[in-house]
Amino acid sequence: MKLKNSYLFSAVAERTAAYQKAHPERRLLRLSIGDVTRPLAPAVVAAMRKAADEMGRCETFRGYAPSGTRMGYEPLLATIVKSYARKGVALGEEDIFISDGAKSDCGNLSDLFSADNTVLIPDPVYPVYLDTNIMAGRRIVFADGTEENGFLPMPKRDMRADVIYLCSPNNPTGAAYTKEELRAWVGYALENDAVILYDAAYEYFVSGEDRARSIYQVEGAKECAIELCSYSKTAGFTGVRCGYTVVPRELVREGVSLNRLWERRQSTKFNGVSYVTQMGAAAVFTEEGERQIGEAIAYYRGNAKIISDALTRLGIPFTGGEHSPYIWMKCPCGMDSWTFFDYLLNNAGVVGTPGSGFGRNGEGYFRLTAFGTHEDTEEAMRRIAKLLET
Length: 390
Known about the structure:
This protein is an alpha/beta fold. It has twelve helices and 15 strands.
């Protein structure tokens, strides 16, 4: 009952649908929800076909996922371990739990923690962090992300938190922490016996040695952090559903292994991801799979550049786009977020996401996504430019 009446993206969809019904002749360009448009990589499709064939034969049919191996089949777990090794991070298969996506685990991880814990959430940020903890009845405090700190809040001495949510690259702002900045958060968590829930759903968009693709690239993070990862934006699995969460065996609080607790929680409430899906995911981090998903990510990066270049020409301040598929722009002419949403929808036929839906500090900002097609992205920015130039 303490939640807002509508989830942010549901509210966007309702307004968009109402406009489209009133103007059926208008072709809308949607740069709002972060859903992908590029197809699955050929290596993934081939692996899924092979797995589907296996499911159709008695001798190779499989039922429930193997719970003793964190709901993951060995070929998939092995590719994840190797992908971390390429980032300079040593993990064991016992540290990895396969899931149906980062969003589910993001909410479900709260099962591990007492309702008496205080949760620290950045503002602005992905609404699921806030909403799931409101549902759980926890005390919530905020770390302010603003234009002044580049939308990357840092720990302060007077902060008091038991569970900390971090998202890098950030959704919605596109800002990405450096390894040095994450070192400060890890230090805070270790000093205060806190646990960091680190959302790395967009890590494949990060470039440069100074930026972190995993919090475990920071020394000591295995003793204080859980990392959530997704194949949705990495490999186009938004409709396929597969992700993985890393709960290191080194992570212990009050003498209790969180790895063991999470295994117990999952074995009680979750029956795993289908064999066909897991085999498709296992192909993602192969040599051929990474080459193919790299092509899709480069495509989305190209869209981000189209958006960034257009906003730069218009003189509109923004963050993101470089290490992220999201561009976080300042609303022009002092408009509030929903006013600008309606202005763009009604006058340009372009749909974005109002920044105020991501938190108090999002008011006056607007999120655009690079997950559309090149053609739609170029046309959307032409419409926006024509509108704002006049």
